[in-house]
Amino acid sequence: MTLETPADVREVRVDLGERGYRVRIGPGVRHTLPAVLARLGVRRAAVVTARPPEWTPDPGVPALVVPARDGEEGKTLAWVAELCGRFARYGLTRADAVVAVGGGTTTDAAGLAAALYHRGLPVVHLPTTLLAQVDASVGGKTAVNLPEGKNLVGAYWQPAEVLCDTDYLATLPDREHANGYGEIARCHFIGAPGLLGLPVADQIAASVALKASIVAADERDQGRRHLLNYGHTLGHALEHATGHRIRHGEGVAIGTVFAGRLALALGRIGADRAAEHRDVVAAFGLPTRLPAGPSPAELIGFMRADKKRLGDGLAFVLDGPAGAELVTGVSEDAVAAVLRAMPRAEPA
């Protein structure tokens, strides 16, 4: 079965051979879910949804509907185990599929449950936030958090299809909509400049196309895929240190500004390029200052748990003469000095 692509729907291919898939971006694409599942030959589905019934599409096959625990506090191994138990009680088999409808925490947790249950069921993602549409739903990374850090337990499990319905974006609160621009802003420094001012569907498509090209070249983070972590090392630390008061996209935005300052301190870029980091983030309406509260020592403690770290010192993706690249062995003293010099937001 083939699906026609209307003129107002963008389509990006993640080229991974037999594991390759389409990302379709545009208004109303959620309604193509029955055709997607029919193409996969699915008999039944488990729909893990963070959205109300009127925004959860009919899968076109008998389905178990499970209300999601959308939010970082729901990204736990206990929730993944509960999902797998519900799949088992419903009688889901390898001839069936999982559908995730919600933000990045929903696609992460449901995607990990799909990867683990029966050693892998097809999963179709319907990301409903801007953040999830530009990043979390694409690339096959699924993970949950531990008290010790973010996304420390997970698996690579590529979706069978991703449906980025832009109609969902009109339902988002202002802060959640702005949150998604953190991932878009950092694209400026890893291969997709010039996204500011484009229609949102074009911003999503360009961000997804960049990620798709990187994932196709390095599916399992052995090299180039590290670029996608630009701004994330400090971003993840800020999320944890503030009890997720700082949201993911906001953390990545602040982390991007920090990455420019750290690259300047290490002599990798000049002052103008470092300032460009702040200017781009600010132009997207995102925070550029560290929040009040977490100390440099506390933030560095969380950075020590970062998955990119190899050997002594800390690891960051930083801009440089040849563009962004993974830099390892960065001294904690250098990081602390840059953190101390960054402006802080006023206490709330």
From TrEMBL:
GO function terms (MF aspect): 3-dehydroquinate synthase activity
UniProt keyword tRNA-binding, yes or no: no
Cofactor(s) for this UniProt protein: NAD(+)
Keywords: Amino-acid biosynthesis, Aromatic amino acid biosynthesis, Lyase, NAD
SUPFAM superfamilies xref list: Dehydroquinate synthase-like
Span of domain 3-dehydroquinate synthase N-terminal: 68-177
InterPro entries, A to Z: Dehydroquinate_synthase, DHQS/DOIS_N, DHQS_C
Transmembrane segments annotated in the record for this chain: none
GO biological process: amino acid biosynthetic process; aromatic amino acid family biosynthetic process
Enzyme class: lyase
Keyword Iron: no
UniProt domain 3-dehydroquinate synthase C-terminal: residue ranges: 201-308
EC number per UniProt: 4.2.3.4
PANTHER family according to UniProt: 3-DEHYDROQUINATE SYNTHASE, 3-DEHYDROQUINATE SYNTHASE, CHLOROPLASTIC
Name of the protein in question: 3-dehydroquinate synthase
Organism field: Actinomadura macrotermitis
